[in-house]
Design goal:
By secondary structure, the chain is an all-beta fold. The protein has one domain. The strands form three sheets. A four-stranded antiparallel β-sheet has the order 2-1-10-9, with no helix packed on it. It has a three-stranded antiparallel β-sheet with strand order 4-3-5, with no helix packed on it. The chain has a three-stranded antiparallel β-sheet with strand order 6-8-7, with no helix packed on it. The radius of gyration is 13 Å and the shape is globular. It starts with a strand and ends with a strand.
Length: about 120
């Protein structure tokens, strides 16, 4: 089951996004949140895509978090993580992140549930 996340910034911007995948496409995709500065919002992209772009404007995005080969996720405190089908892991760290709406590093993600 994938993870549902909410994001909120001190500027008032709020969003929801997903991490991982459902049972049907667990070997085919891994969703992750990304910032689109052109649209000024958080979007969801598939880490398996050769070129990750904004699904709305086709512009460049910056993925939050990182993919690591370390099975212990580099001991990074995470609000969410997901094991990819090849054994690597995607980790979305706790703390503040770049907000595409205001441009400041004040966006926080929270786990809000599971989806499938």
């Amino acid at each position: 089951m994938g993870l549902m996340m909410s994001g909120a910034c001190d500027c008032g911007y709020e969003t929801t996004c997903s991490v991982g995948s459902g049972r049907v496409d667990v070997r085919d995709r891994c969703d992750a949140p990304a910032a689109c500065d052109a649209c000024r919002r958080v979007v969801t992209v598939d880490l398996g895509d050769a070129e990750m772009v904004c699904p709305d404007c086709d512009g460049p995005v910056t993925v939050y978090g990182r993919v690591t080969a370390d099975p212990h996720r580099n001991h990074v405190p995470a609000v969410g993580d997901w094991t990819l089908h090849d054994g690597r892991a995607y980790v979305l760290p706790t703390g503040r992140h770049h907000c595409p709406h205001c441009g400041e590093t004040r966006l926080r993600f929270l786990f809000i549930g599971l989806w499938d």
